[in-house]
Amino acid sequence: MTKIEAVIQNSKLEAVKTALQEIGVEGMTVIEVRGHGRQKGHTEVYRGREYSVDLIPKTKIEMVLPDALVEKAEQAILNAARTGKIGDGKIFRSRIDEAIRIRNDERGEGAL
Amino acid sequence: MARGMQVPPLGEPHSVSIGKKLITGLVSAVLTLIFAQTISAQTPSPSPAADVNSRLARLEQQAAEAKSSADNAWMLTSAALVLMMTGPGLALFYGGLVRKKNVLGTMMQSLALMAVITICWGLFSYSLSFGAGNSFMGGLQNVFLKGVGSAPDADYAATIPAQTFMVYQLMFAIITPALIAGAFAERMKFSAMLALTVLWSIIVYDPMAHMVWGKGGLLNASLSGRFPTLDFAGGTVVHVTSGVSALVCALYLGKRLGYPKESMPPHSVVLSFIGACMLWVGWFGFNAGSALGAGSLATSAFVATHFAAAAATIGWAGAEWIRNGKPSVLGGISGAVAGLVAITPAAGFVKPMPALLIGLLAGIFCYLMVAKVKAKVGYDDSLDAFGVHGAGGTLGALLTGVFAVRAVNPIFKDSQGNALPSGLIEGNAHQLLNQLVGVAIAWVIAIVGTVLILKLVDVTIGLRVSEEEEVQGLDLSQHGEEGYYWEASA
Q1: CB contact (8 A) between residue B265 and residue A44
Q2: ipTM for the complex?
Q3: CATH number, residue B406
Q4: Which of B260, B326, B371 sits opposite A47 (nearest CB)?
Q5: Which burial class, exposed, middle or buried, applies to B370 when counting CB atoms under 10 A from its CB (0-12, 13-18, 19+)?
Q6: Roughly what angle, to the nearest 10 degrees, separates helices B391-403 and B241-253?
């Protein structure tokens, strides 16, 4: 099993979700996050005082997939989330040892 | 006669109901005629002239009563509008500007004053402000609102009950100390804030209100004071006093922990926006209500108020647009408030075009005070109570001496009752001097009074919350609650 974590632009959530559903991804967890990579933040001015905002609101999608689906899922995210500009986000992949369904103690890929 | 307009019972056919209406109307008209004749036949009428005289007297009385009712309706509405400026207007405006952890503490300051000042006003403050006294302070004859009933006090407002005047003025006494809260936001103990504002109300507000508006007041322009200062709705009494006291508070109290290194942007410009727009609307009660009647002077003040607010919105946001490349929402609403502040003393004295100019100047001037001067001098007037109210109030009070005209409000009259020139543009240069005296007195009383009170509260109760409490926020440390309480719902 593999976990994919994708940090994407907020505005791309719908497109990515749809693309993942189309290739058969059945579950995901979506989190509102803030952060920054190489992208510089922006400045806001309140009554003449400048504030630099370097942690930018992003959306993080987490999903644990059967290994067979991983390449397709990553490609779907790349296609749907890319604008070509700085700030498009990143995808991280990691191994998962076990998955357990709380309802019936089912284990492994069947629990996904 | 109401019978002639009786509504037909439900379900009756239309034509029948019209016919019935006609008949009922006719019958009742005839009956009224007969009845009226019977009455006049019964009334002894010694001579036709006396009859006419008594009818005239009755008519005059009815006209006076009608005017009184109209004025009273507007003044009660105005009083309600001015209360709305404090809660929720100012509470939202200030509440949005602070950090999330202080939103309730900030709003509570407005609410507490709505309660505490009201009680003080009833017990003694009204008397100290508006009772007949010496040049500086009212007497004690109206304590516990003695003698403040339904009969008008002709010195102040001849057509409304004295009690209406009292409650209208109360709303001003509430919002004035509430404005100061903008300077000590996010770091003062609630207990200290209560002591400070109550003492301030007695030592600074009441005397200033008495001097400018009270019987025998030193600066009263309509009751022939020594230095007649034109202050229609409280440029000196409300805004200069509160704004200057705010600066004193900010300097005395010191900066918030982490200021100016840490970023402390407003936690919700949305709340501030709603609050500012409520202030704008409430200000019609504040300024147009200060005509103390529903006549054309109220209209004039209403129009001047609105025009100044509009121009100041453009002034502040426009200055930002030029300097930063973007006009901000916070700049727009701050500008509106600055314009409303500046037009407050002038509202019932100036024409609409000068009102536009006053507003525009106030918007730009207050922007520079807040964005440039504050940063240079380095005081932490957290929500810019001084930059907006102190600076805007001073500017407005002085410009009132420039643009006041007798066509709007013939306040100065010679012995024959002819209107004399009001402001500088009518050739009365001396008025500018009077305005300066009024402003100077407001500054001095605000500085001296506030320093004394701050010292007193500092050594007795202590002014600031502890460092831990400041980090935790006023909501939790002072009130034991949170403005935004998030917990996954079950």
Answers
A1: yes
A2: 0.73
A3: 1.10.3430.10
A4: B371
A5: buried
A6: 160
